[in-house]
Amino acid sequence: xxxxxxxxxxxxxxxxxxxxxxxxxxxxxxxxxxxxxxxxxxxxxxxxxxxxxxxxxxxxxxxxxxxxxxxxxxxxxxxxxxxxxxxxxxxxxxxxxxxxxxxxxxxxxxxxxxxxxxxxxxxxxxxxxxxxxxxxxxxxxxxxxxxxxxxxxxxxxxxxxxxxxxxxxxxxxxxxxxxxxxxxxxx
Length: 187
Hints:
By secondary structure, the protein is α+β, with helices and mostly antiparallel strands. The chain folds into two domains: 2-79, Endonuclease I-creI; 104-185, no CATH class. It contains seven helices and four strands; from the N terminus they run αββαββααααα. The termini are far apart. 21% of the residues are buried.
């Protein structure tokens, strides 16, 4: 029975099916002549573990799949093995590009956040110096401020390692926030 279903699905797809270029979007569609055929194909596909959606519009009956893995499963089901390999290759490349883009965007956002924080911290330090308040800071805050001005692009972790008595990221963050807070309180 499974072979008959596979052949019927293969014939339906070959007769009136289409698949979009997977580099742009995932979309497989089969157009059917009537509601009865639509219901039969949906039942067959769902019985074989493939989830589809339907569309009925002015005596036009269609099933479609927009999920990449389901399309790949459908192509394998109807025996389109070369198509599955090509589709999966494109799908993997597309997913890898997406992951790389997400990582790059995350790194860029973190870098922007670090730069903006550094700019704010250096501005606070310069304000304290201009107002003659810098020397009133504790030795640990002065050391931190001098390192931040000297190394504006360094991460908090790296700044912490450069201190006479190294501290972690949270210790550096606390000191820099304290400097910014003191500068804000000065008129």
